[in-house]
Design a protein that fits this description.
About 30% of the residues lie in helices and about 20% in strands. It is α+β, with helices and mostly antiparallel strands. This is Nodulation protein U.
């Protein structure tokens, strides 16, 4: 059975699953299209070119006829896991008889984690979906049936990010304004918080935000001019202190319910945009409430097309688990050759690249298929040595982003516990860990944390070999790893864009599939 799946709205994408194996997962933003882009004719056409036959099932992730979750539903719609959350009907696809499947957006998040989790089938699990609109717990039984346990909070992701909007003088007043980047920026800024008691002003602001039903559509920031954080500036200490307490207040609502009611010790699967919050993930993993905690590499809406396709597979075959690889996007396109008058090219040798990095150079690394989800996991990466604060400054300048943004480490999994606490197995850069050495300054955030990705030869042999070569020179199998993309756009996926980016932003070299490229010395 070949299932072709689509996700409408922001973070649009197309996936294909055949007989339980993920063939590809394409995202509209990738290849330098705008971040969070909607489903486009371009990405649909590319997906069609990767199939050699017509699908048997079209899966359409439930969405809305508009932008906000409360607008009229499209297909199965946004909310629900019980009766009416799945639809199945006969249809046509370019003349072929197919089944048209849809399930709710809520189910898409649940099934993304369930279908991708190791050894999930035949065992009961807990599930948490928290995102812009949904904040709920579920129990999945041995057959994959989903039971809703508790609605903990409406709009947890929107409420989390709202504090940034409140403090940001550049964020406009008015209802309905939303910026997808605010949550990630706030996560970075909480590391700068002082450990101080909750003040009355902080409590009043946090309580007001959390008690709202729909914060984005319900409250304009100019209704909160009474708050001490109104346009206070996101780099002010009063905002940073409140941001950490705001984060803790949201997490505590969910943790308190889980600690009291989710007592079976089952594995927990986390999905939704809030599953990109590495601090919250780490707290759940360290809580001792669950046998294990799994977060897929595409927990936000970038995984929704896949989640609904998994749901379709379970509906028609009874089996949700899929065989997948995180590097499921398009191959890197070598659309031009580097100008030999400007660049030297030679076959990739890991030891030569490692020495180049050790000397302080920064490179763009683009090999094979791009990774699914928003995190660069070693196939579309900017890499650098991890030792100096100056490297952090330079990387953020290259990226064109704020200086408070941390740089993540990519580390050989077999060595990771030498330098990080809790990093034995973090393949998708979704948990905070503690750095245990002062030598990795470029990847150590202000509070001593790091958003570590661990790598093995089985998962990414090219990066693993490079890390081993870097260890042979420096003693550390760790590098700086940040995403290879123009500011405000998805991962670079063509040589022409890569060279343009490097020339505009000052990269020192490139790895393009199996070729190492450096500038000619004048």
């Amino acid at each position: 059975m070949l299932i072709l799946g689509f996700k409408e709205g922001h973070d649009g994408g197309v996936v294909a699953i055949e007989d339980g194996k993920l063939l590809f997962a394409l995202e509209a933003e990738k290849d330098s299209f705008p971040r969070y882009d909607r489903l486009t004719a371009e990405v649909i056409t590319r997906a069609a070119g990767m199939l050699d036959r017509q699908p048997d099932v079209i899966s359409l992730s439930g969405w809305v006829k508009g932008k906000h979750s409360v607008e009229p539903k499209l297909r199965a719609g946004y909310f629900g896991v019980g009766e009416g959350s799945v639809t199945d009907e006969a249809g046509k696809w370019f003349g072929k008889d197919v089944r048209i499947f849809s399930s709710t957006h809520e189910r898409s998040h649940i099934m993304t984690a369930y279908g991708m989790a190791p050894a999930a089938h035949g065992k009961a699990h807990y599930s948490l979906v928290w995102e812009g609109s949904i904040g709920d717990f579920y129990r999945i039984d041995e057959s994959g049936e989903v039971t809703h346990l508790k609605h903990v909070m409406t709009d947890p992701g929107n409420k989390y990010a709202y504090l940034f909007s409140l403090a940001d003088p550049n964020h406009p007043a008015g209802k309905g304004f939303f910026n997808y980047s605010h949550a990630g920026k706030q996560m970075a800024l909480t590391a700068f918080a002082e450990d101080t008691p909750m003040t009355k002003a902080e409590q009043e602001t946090i309580d007001f935000i959390l008690k709202q039903d729909g914060i984005v559509l319900g409250v304009s920031k100019d209704e909160m001019t009474w708050s001490h954080l109104y346009n206070a500036g996101v780099e002010s200490q009063e905002y940073r202190n409140a941001a950490a307490k705001h984060s803790n207040a949201i997490f505590d609502r969910f943790y308190s319910y889980a600690a009291k009611h989710m007592t079976e010790g089952l594995p927990l699967q986390i999905s939704g945009g809030c599953a990109l919050n590495c601090n919250w993930n780490a707290q759940f993993r360290q809580s001792g409430l669950f046998e294990s905690v799994f977060v897929p590499p595409c927990p936000n809406d970038s995984g929704a097309a896949l989640g609904t396709a998994i749901d379709a597979q379970r509906f028609y075959t009874g089996q949700a688990t899929i065989d997948w690889d995180v590097y499921a996007g398009e191959e890197f396109l070598e659309d031009i050759q580097p100008d030999p008058a400007k660049y030297e090219t030679r076959p990739l040798v890991a030891s030569e690249v490692a020495r180049f990095l050790e000397q302080g150079n920064i490179i763009g690394w683009a090999r094979g298929r791009y990774e699914m989800g928003p995190r660069a996991l070693g196939n579309r990466s900017i890499l650098a040595a991890p030792f100096t604060e100056e490297t952090t400054v330079r990387l953020n300048a290259i990226k064109g982003r704020e200086g408070y943004r941390p740089i993540a480490p990519i580390a050989l999994e077999s060595d990771a516990d030498k330098w990080f606490v809790g990093s034995v197995h973090d393949p998708y850069m979704l948990f905070f860990n503690r750095v245990t050495t002062e030598e990795l300054k470029a990847v150590t955030h202000f509070d001593g944390s790091a958003r570590t990705q661990t790598v093995t030869h089985e998962r990414n042999p090219g990066i693993a070999t490079l890390l081993e070569a870097f260890r042979d020179i420096t003693g550390f199998s760790v590098l700086c790893n940040t995403s290879l993309n123009f500011n405000g756009r998805g991962f670079i996926n063509a040589t022409s864009d890569l060279l343009q980016y490097g020339e505009e932003h000052g990269l020192d070299g490139y790895v393009i599939n199996d070729t190492f490229v450096t500038r000619r010395k004048s």
